[in-house]
Write a structure and sequence with these properties.
This protein is mostly helical and 251 residues long. Helix content is 64%, strand content 3%. The protein has a domain of 151 residues.
Length: 251
């Protein structure tokens, strides 16, 4: 008897991501004190494209979003988006063997969902219960996968090959979001997009100084991203840079 298995699109994409991960682990180099940037020519072109997109669309949209909506509303949107991301953190905590982090994120999610109107409010932080932020890129780091080369992704911005694969896998690791029916499954995307615009508005001066005021915005963005990402993972760095890069590019 032949048994047929139906493999869904998300499963296929996740398997492809794992195949990419295998290739990455075979050829990538460990993180050093400087950047591994053999794709600098292509990266600089993508970086300039991202700046053009920011100038034409993202920055004006963020300024409009921040100007129209008062701080409490923007904060509520950000709270809602961050709360929905917590089940994905729990999955990665478990994959990393971090039971304490999994419990902390799980408790925070339950606390804010029940007492924070579904996560719109953040009473958990007032109670001292903060998020243990993580992602599948960190899971790969814990598993010993090298950092790989520095890359600049369209729209998303600075990354490494390891973090890039982690971003793909993270699309499928959140059990809450992946269980939503339509159209509810798009609520998280809308909230996440609005939250990112809020971050762009909140850190406007810092981002503008890097993108538009730096002598070499590409080198500056690369340095800040790598320092913050390595600091976040516990890799020894000279110093932690501005937290704006953790907010905008950390996950």
């Amino acid at each position: 008897m032949i048994v047929a298995f139906k493999i869904s699109g998300p499963v296929i994409r996740a398997l492809l991501a794992l195949l990419i991960l295998g290739a990455l682990g075979a050829c990538a180099r460990p993180a050093g004190s400087g950047p591994n940037d053999p794709y600098e020519v292509q990266n600089r072109a993508t970086h300039q494209g991202n700046i053009a997109l920011d100038k034409a669309l993202v920055r004006p949209s963020a300024n409009a979003y921040g100007s129209v909506l008062p701080d409490p509303v923007r904060e509520s949107v950000g709270n809602f988006s961050r709360n929905l991301s917590l089940p994905g953190f729990v999955v990665n905590n478990i994959l990393q063997g971090d039971i304490k982090g999994a419990g902390q994120n799980g408790m925070r999610f339950l606390f804010n969902t029940v007492f924070g109107l579904g996560g719109i409010l953040d009473p958990a932080s007032d109670a001292g219960l903060f998020a243990a932020k993580t992602d599948f890129g960190e899971t790969l780091y814990v598993w010993g996968v090298p950092e790989g080369n520095f890359v600049v992704l369209p729209v998303i911005g600075p990354s490494t090959e390891r973090h890039m694969v982690g971003r793909v896998v993270d699309l499928f690791t959140n059990p809450l979001i992946n269980s939503f029916p339509e159209p509810e499954k798009y609520y998280e995307l809308a909230a996440s997009t609005a939250s990112r615009l809020g971050d762009r508005y909140r850190f406007s001066n810092t981002v503008d100084s890097i993108y538009y005021d730096s002598a070499d915005s590409y080198a500056q963005a690369r340095l800040l991203y790598l320092q913050n990402r390595r600091f976040q993972l516990g890799v020894s760095v000279a110093e932690k840079s501005d937290s704006v890069f953790e907010e905008l590019y950390g996950n």
